[in-house]
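Retro notes (design track)

What went well: tokenization of the new backbones is finally stable.
What didn't: we kept losing track of which sequence belonged to which structure.
Fix going forward: every design gets posted as structure first, then sequence, in one message. First example under the new rule, 130 residues:
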């Protein structure tokens, strides 16, 4: 089996008032997911549970993100979350805090059997006669 990347999705989420890094990350994940309708599992005959979902979240305060809470967003598949320093904190003009911006990348992969270049679409080796 070989892990094969099928889809890369990007999103952005914010927490404008509450400075909640987890909520900004969750909104970024939803932004990435809900702008797409992926049928790759069905197209390749895999169950949706076989989707390997890697999530990378960038925020200015990575330690403030509850990664376990983000896993609950995914209705199926095998998600994993990695939080890194990134995103942006924008100071409020009155000095009362910041608005949080989270950037998100989601990579969907499957474990697939590699096929050689000699295989044709019908599964026969080029040059074989049926």
């Amino acid at each position: 089996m070989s892990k094969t990347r099928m889809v890369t999705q990007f999103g952005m989420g914010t927490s404008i008032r509450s400075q909640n890094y987890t909520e900004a990350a969750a909104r970024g994940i939803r932004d990435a997911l809900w702008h797409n309708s992926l049928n790759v599992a069905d197209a390749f005959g895999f169950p949706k549970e076989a989707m390997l979902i890697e999530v990378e979240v960038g925020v200015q305060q990575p330690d403030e993100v509850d990664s376990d809470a983000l896993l609950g967003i995914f209705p199926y598949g095998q998600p994993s979350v990695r939080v890194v320093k990134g995103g942006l904190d924008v100071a409020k003009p009155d000095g009362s805090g910041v608005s949080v911006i989270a950037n998100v990348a989601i990579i969907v992969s499957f474990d697939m059997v590699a096929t050689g270049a000699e295989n044709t679409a019908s599964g026969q080796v080029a040059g074989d006669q049926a």
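Added context from the reviewer: Helices lie at 21-33, 40-43, 67-71.
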